[in-house]
Amino acid sequence: MASNDEKLSKFSTAINHYAQEQREKIEQEIAEYKQAQLEEAERQVLHEAYQLIQGEMTAMRDEIVRDIAHREMDARKQLLEKRKNIENEVFDKAKNRLIDYTKSAQYPSLLQKYTRGLSELFPESGTVLCVKKDDLQYEDLLRQAFAKDCTVQADQDILIGGVRAFHAERGIMADETLDTMLESQQEWFEETSGMSVV
């Protein structure tokens, strides 16, 4: 009987030993599984964090690029406005100096020169010479310089000076006004300086 108890005790010890081994093995597998899951979760979190950081950095970069582009456009617009203001100021001064010139003693000879030139373009009588209202005082001088039958009249569009001629029947017109010359110079300046796109 002792041998049965002994066998039973050995069997029980063996079962307990086997159960203990199985328990340790299962605990080891659980620990390894937990570790693998933890590492996978860590990798996933790091990957998501990296993606989030990259997205934020891209958004920040895009925002900076947009901000710089807007600032650059604003700066260019301000520069163009400043250049346009300077241009207008310069051409206003030129206009005032031309107006002052039309009050000088040399101006009538310039009117004569322009009128003689127009006379060559308008060989027939019936031409109308247009001048600013203040220049009607030179009507006799203009008629003499034109050397043909013509009409001299004021034109409200001529503000600086000079002469504009037209022949209604022939449908021709020529402009020797300081207004048009100054305007042409300003247009030329804007084209050559790239300011015509303001």
The strand line-up of the biggest sheet is 2-1-3-4
Instruction: Bin the helical content.
Output: over 70%
The best one-word shape is rod-shaped
**How widely separated are the two ends?**
117 Å
Radius of gyration: 49 Å
Question: pLDDT below 50 for ≥5 consecutive residues: which ranges?
Answer: none
Order of secondary-structure elements? HHEHEEEH
Can you characterise this structure?
The protein has a 4-stranded mixed β-sheet with strand order 2-1-3-4. The mean pLDDT is 87. The chain is built from 4 helices and 4 strands; from the N terminus they run H-H-E-H-E-E-E-H. The protein has 198 residues and is an alpha+beta fold. The protein has helices spanning 2-101, 107-121, 139-146, 178-193, and strands at residues 127-131, 150-154, 162-167, 172-177. The radius of gyration is 49 Å and the shape is rod-shaped.
Please tag this protein with its features:
4 helices, alpha+beta, 4 strands, rod-shaped, single chain, 198 residues
Topology:
Layout: H1 2-101, H2 107-121, E1 127-131, H3 139-146, E2 150-154, E3 162-167, E4 172-177, H4 178-193
Parallel strand pairs: 1-2
Antiparallel strand pairs: 1-3, 3-4
Helix pairs in contact: 1-4, 2-3
Task: Provide a quick synopsis of the model.
Helix content is 70%, strand content 11%.
